[in-house]
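Reviewer 2 asked us to include a model.

Predict the structure of this chain.
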Amino acid sequence: MFDKIFASRELLALSEHKTVPSSYRVGTALLAIHRSLLTAHYSKLYAHSAISYLNTAPLMWDFEHGAATDTFEISYTIPSQCALELQNGKADIGIIPSAAYASIPGLSIIPGVAIASKQAVRSILLVSKKPMGEIQTVALDSSSLTSVALTKILFEKCWGGARQFRSVAPKLDGMLAQNDAALLIGDPALQIDRSRYYTWDLAEEWVRLTDKPFVFAFWAVREDAARNTNLELPAIFQNSRDHGLAPDNLRRITSEWAVKLNLPAEDLYTYLSANIFYYLDEPCLEGLRLFYRYAHECKALPPAPNLNFANTALALI
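Predicted model (structure tokens):
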């Protein structure tokens, strides 16, 4: 298994991202607990964490810079594999899009940590050259799960009913060449000149509709893996988030990403500290449950299971 981990790292080194610092490479981080640091009764844990976008960087702080570097071995794979690896048992822990929880059985949520928003998020946009009333066709980012479902909910409940949706590669010019609007997510959404288009921030529209936060992703662990370790998983992942959000560390993250994205570091600092909300608190849980309900009503997702938490004796933070 470790051979596969290091082979994955070698493949990434040959990719176009080989000049980017390892903590911020485009890909999905795979973490494994070193067997030598565990008792004989521990099983190895593997974690996929999508770090394709800036907004996951604070969550990874301890796995790249802190105490967890002594416990976890990091490698990389492509982001689209993250939920699939959890589903087929090749990974045990991962940051998964909220929509994936509705279709992968046997997962527990690691409490307290999320990628969410209680206001405009800036990085999940519907973009068009036409006003809403003229939009008939919508290009959906083929790599997105949760934002696609949210788009369908908003059209159904806010924007006059369903349109014709097409799943395409996330290239804005190509998306708009053959469609009236495009769903753009992640760093590319941060980089567009919104003055050139009509744009709708999907998190902002969700809050306007529901008066609740929107949860885009969270850490999840396979239940069988959680049973086979007595590591305090909530503490590990909550501490990594807290350290990543410390002002000095957040400045370091945003200064490095400012060069990568060609955006002002101060804008990125505001994005991570204000637009993104990293705590899976009770209002976020209420918003998450409502998202699953609306997504099922709109036939965007199958029915989601009840929210099941790992190490529930530990308080949500």
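The first strand starts at residue 28 and ends at 33. Residues 1-44, 313-317 have pLDDT under 50 and may be disordered. We have added this to the supplementary material.
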